[in-house]
Amino acid sequence: MDRLSLLLTPMTGAVITGMLVIVMFSLGFYSWISVAIGAGIGCILAWPSAYVVSRRIKQADPRWPTRAEADRLRGGLPEV
């Protein structure tokens, strides 16, 4: 578990939930059940999607320290 994914989790959850609720409303489902289903799926998929985004950010950024460099900077302590 890394700290960047913890910071990205609420944002990705909001994006997924909003997208699903908009899709449900576009399909004509105007009830609290459609909002609850979208919110439930958004909560379930928030952390895995944030973890994937975090990994892609870390792989794409050349200045992001590697795992060995990060361990050396933290003194061998776990990240979270």
Q: Looking at the structure, what is the overall shape?
A: elongated
What Rg do the Cα atoms give? 17 Å
Largest sheet: none
Query: Helix- and strand-based class?
Result: mainly alpha
Termini separation:
7 Å
**Contiguous helical run count:** 3
In sequence order, what are the helices and strands, one letter per element?
A: HHH
Report the uncertain regions: none
Q: Estimate the strand proportion.
A: under 5%
Helix proportion range: over 70%
Let me know the number of strands.
0
Overall structural domain count: 1
Mean pLDDT: 88
What is the structure about, briefly put?
The chain is built from three helices and no strands. The chain is an all-alpha fold.
Describe this structure as you would to a colleague.
With 80 residues, this protein is an all-alpha fold. The chain has one domain (3-32, 41-74). The chain contains 3 helices and no strands. It has helices at 3-26, 32-60, 67-74. Helix 1 (3-26) crosses helix 2. It is elongated, with a radius of gyration of 17 Å. The N and C termini lie close together (7 Å). The relative contact order is 0.18. The mean pLDDT is 88.
